[in-house]
Amino acid sequence: MGEFDGKVALVTGASRGLGTAMAVGLAEAGADIILVARGDLTAAKKAVETTGRKAWTFNADQASRVSMDKLAAALGGELPFPDILVNNGGTIKRGAFADFTQADWDEVMEVNLGSIFRFSQAVVRGWLAQKRRGKIIHTASMLSFQGGIRVVSYTAAKSGLAGLTRAMANELASQGINVNAIAPGYMETDNTTALRADAARHRQITERIPAGRWGQPHDLAGAAIYLSSAASDYVSGHVLVVDGGWLSR
Fold this sequence. Notes:
Order of helices and strands: EHEHEHEHEHEHHHE
Number of domains: 1
Structural class: alpha/beta
Oligomer: single chain
Distance between the termini: 36 Å
Strand content: 15-25%
Radius of gyration: 17 Å
CATH architecture: 3-Layer(aba) Sandwich
Helix content: 40-55%
CATH topology: Rossmann fold
Largest sheet: 7 strands, parallel
Low-confidence stretches: none
CATH class: Alpha Beta
């Protein structure tokens, strides 16, 4: 108890869904929160402040390198420098492989992988310069392990993110920086709206989940708290699956 007092967590993709849930969970554990998203952060800010913790907001679009560079430049000035980084922001485009456009490929790869590499690098450079420890959590996916259907760029990016997690961990663990990832299963979020709207597909997925239900955003809060805490100081390069047993089936 009290471990997170005085610590700041930065959460991207924090305007709704998984990002808001992890941000609120970390706030309930005692951290102050920097909320980042390209959308409206009003509700997320209120939810964090309801826990009694401080909240800062910053609008940034992970598809834009200029936008993310502005976020990085704000750290330590307009925004406090975080102790915990949760790279949750992401996007998905669906389409048949043969018809998938270069533009959709490029956007998904930039948001889900490229921007995460560059922003993590900026944060890590700050920690190393200040000789500080830190925790990084990437939001991976079941498609870090599986191929999926009609989501070629998302699968490629999330598979790459699992590899980036391990590569970063190999270099940074000895310097007091833990890098891990959380791989959510089928969650009730905006990204799965199309799947849930397909009655047959929704039924097939639910029947295969041993827990018998889709995940809720708050199901990730405990994993985020654990990977941000001292309890996980000897956990490095791990992708923690939170999927109701989907991969075990």
